[in-house]
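Q: What would this chain look like folded?
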Amino acid sequence: MVVFGTLWLNRFVAQTARWRPSQKERSVPMNGSDNSQKNILTRSDGATIAYDQISGDGPGVIFLHGLKSDRRGTKAAHLLKYCEASDQPFITFDMFGHGDSSGDFVDGSISRWTDDALAVIDALTEGPQVLIGSSMGGWVMLKTALARPDRIKGLIGIAAAPDFTETLIWGSLSQDQRESVMTTGRLEMPSVYQEEPYDIGLTLIEDGRSNLLLNKPISFSGPVRLLHGLTDDDVPWQVSVTTAEHLTGEDVTVTLVKDGKHNLSRPDDLDLLTETLESILAKVTDQ
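A: My prediction, written as C-alpha cells:
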C-alpha cells in the first residue's frame, strides 16, 4: 500500500521538467563538537572520498547528496546537528567528482557513486543504517539498498530522481544534441544555479541505462518515506509516486509539499525531514 501524506492525489497530471543539477545549496561549515570528524577514505583504486562523521548509538544515518552538490549543503548540516544532539551516528560524504573527493565530474556515473556509498558503508559503519538521498542521491540510495539489504533498513528520498539520465536528460535532447554527445563523449548543459555550464559525460548516460530501476520492481521491505515538492521544476513529483509504486515493501509513504521546490531546504522543509527521520529511526530501532 502506498500512503500519500500532506496531500492526497487521485489524479496524476502530466508534467514536463527541464533537467538541471541539484540546486546548489549554501555550503555550511561542519562546526560540530570534537565528536565531528572530517576525514578521507581511500578506495582500493587510489581514489579518495572526503567525509564528515559523528559517532553515536543506534542505527546510523547516511546522507547522499545530489548531482553537482556536495556534503556541506544545508540539509547535510541540519542532519548533522540533529544527529549530534540525539547521539545518532551520522556520515555525509562527497561522491566521486564532487566537493573535496577526487575525480573529474564528467567521468562520474551512477555505478561509480553507488560504489562510493558502498565503500563508505563497508569501511566506516556497523549495524543497521538509514539512507537519505537527495535528487540524484535518491537513485544512489535505492541502488545501495539493493546491494546491501542486510545493512540498509530504512530509506528517505528527497525529490529522489531514479532514472533521470534517461527520462530527464536523454529524453529531452534534440537529435543534434544526441549526435553531439555520441561523437564528443560529453554534452554541455546550462545551469540556473551557476554562471558556467557543466558537462554531462556519455559515461553517465550509458551507465545510467544499466542502472534503471523504474522498469521493474524495486525489492526493499523496510520503511520508505519519499518527500517531494509540488513546485519542483527539476524532477517531477510524479517520479516519487512512480518510485513508490515500484517498491515491493508495504510501508511506503509519499509526502507532497504543496509549495515545496526541488531542494526542500527551507526551515519547515528541514523540520519535516527530521520528523520523518525520527519516525524511520523508531521503526528501525524496534526491528
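Helices lie at 74-85, 110-124, 136-147, 164-169, 175-184, 202-209, 238-246, 267-286.
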